[in-house]
Design goal:
Elements lengths: L3 H35 L56 H20 L11
Keywords: Membrane, Transmembrane, Transmembrane helix
């Protein structure tokens, strides 16, 4: 009987370690599956997402950002141009366009200084 105790302790330790690492592996796998499911929720990329915590979605406020919203029939993808971040954005206006706009504004200022304007801010007809 005393001969089995030195044999039993290492076996019990190995079985305990096996159960521990199996449980750890299963927990990580389940967490990964849950995370993949949550990444399928389309609400953050939808046009109807308000970005406010009080009213998350204009169409389905009770289902927004939950697992029920995974197959939302009212999902419309938001245009990604508004969400682009970075230092190297495309310029919205070209230099020639800005020169033309500046010239037009200068001409309008010269015209408005010649034509009298009433207190209402409207030009006489």
């Amino acid at each position: 009987m005393l001969m089995l105790i030195p044999l039993f302790c290492p076996i019990a330790i190995w079985i305990t370690l096996l159960f521990f690492f199996t449980a750890l592996f299963l927990a990580v796998a389940q967490g990964r599956r849950q995370l993949q499911k949550l990444h399928r929720i389309p609400c953050s990329r939808c046009v109807f997402c308000t970005g406010d915590y009080r009213l998350k979605c204009a169409v389905h406020p009770m289902r927004a950002f939950s697992e029920e919203a995974i197959d939302c029939r009212d999902f419309e993808r938001e245009i990604q141009e508004n969400r682009k971040m970075g230092f190297f954005k495309k310029p919205v206006f070209s230099v020639s366009f800005l020169v033309i706009i500046t010239w037009i504004l200068a001409v309008k200022l010269r015209i408005s200084s010649v034509i009298p304007v009433f207190k209402t801010g409207r030009l006489p007809v």
